[in-house]
Amino acid sequence: MSLAKHVRPVLAVLGLVIAGPALSHHSFAMYDNTRSITVKGTVSKWQWTNPHAYLEIDAPGEGGAMTHYVLEGTSINLMVRAGWRSNMIKVGDKVTAVAAPTKDGKASGLLLEVTFANGETKNMSIPEGYTFKRTP
Amino acid sequence: MYKSFVSFLCLVCFAPLVSAAQQASKAIPDITGTWETIRDTKRVIVDEKGGARPQYQNAGAQQAKLKPEFLKEREARAKIASEADARGEPIVGRTAQCQGNGMPSMMNGTFPTEILQSKGQVTIIQEIYTQVRRIYLDKPQKKLDDIEPGFYGHSVGHWEGGVLHVDTLGIKAAWNMNTPNSDQIHIKERIYYAADGTLRDEITIEDPVVLEEPYTYTVSYRRLPDYEMLEYVCEDNHYYIDQSGKQALRPETQGK
Question: Most-buried pick from A123, B31, B42, B92 (CB within 10 A)?
Answer without folding.
Answer: B92
